[in-house]
Every structure is written in C-alpha cells, then in structure tokens.
Design goal:
The protein has about 120 residues and is mainly beta. It has one domain (about 1-110). It has one helix and seven strands; from the N terminus they run βββββββα. The protein has one helix spanning about 100-110; strands at about 1-5, 10-20, 25-35, 45, 55-60, 70-80, 90-100. The chain has a four-stranded antiparallel beta sheet, with no helix packed on it. It is globular. The chain starts with a strand and ends in a 6-residue tail after the last helix.
Length: about 120
C-alpha cells in the first residue's frame, strides 16, 4: 500500500518489472484505490495487460477522476498450465512515480521531444 494523497499531481507512472518467470504461466496485476487505506473498491482503477515474459512494462494512471483516492495497492493473480510443477513462480515489482506537471504540459502541447 502506498499513500498518494499528498501528491502535487494526480498522474502516475506505474512500472511493472518482471525479473524471473517460468514458462507456461501468466501474471495479472491490477491497481486498486482507497480513500482510507482500509476499504478498497470492488473494481480496479487500472490493470496491466496480462504478462507472460520478463521485462519492464509501463502504464500511466490518471487519478483526476478519482479525487477521493489517497492510497493505492497492487493485487496480482497467477495462472500456470502445461507440464512441470503446478506451482507458479514469478519475481516482480511494481514501482510508482509521480509524473511532473511540466512534463504533462509539454506532452499536451506537442513540444515534448525524445532525446
């Protein structure tokens, strides 16, 4: 659980980093929000597309339509099929970074350029 209530901006970059995975399994990661850190919504605010391989996977989360959200938490589910041990195995992390307002303005105005 991460508190985001004091964030100056309500747009965040989520980074799913999968560092280890077995073949023939899938990972689903969703992000839920809460106003008090105790009661979580029934529906995820956003979800990463289902993943099967190692790598970095970015996702933007805009909380502009959810002013009540002060806390975020990740929820994951795994699925394994095929041969080998039936127990799924993943090593991953989800990082959260606030997107600076000036960067959003640059992107919106079309003046953002990749270096």
């Amino acid at each position: 659980m991460v508190e985001v209530g004091a964030a100056a901006n309500r747009v965040f970059l989520l980074q799913l980093n999968i560092t280890r995975i077995l073949e023939q399994q899938a990972l689903d990661v969703s992000i839920f929000g809460s106003a008090d850190g105790n009661t979580w919504g029934q529906k995820a605010l956003t979800s990463f597309p289902q993943k099967f391989y190692r790598g970095d996977h970015p996702l933007l989360l805009d909380l502009g339509q959810h002013p009540e959200v002060r806390f975020l938490r990740a929820h994951w589910e795994v699925n394994r099929w095929g041969r080998g041990p039936e127990t799924p195995m993943f090593q991953f992390q989800v990082r959260l970074r606030e997107v600076p307002p000036e960067m959003l303005k640059e992107v919106a105005s079309g003046s953002y350029s990749r270096a």
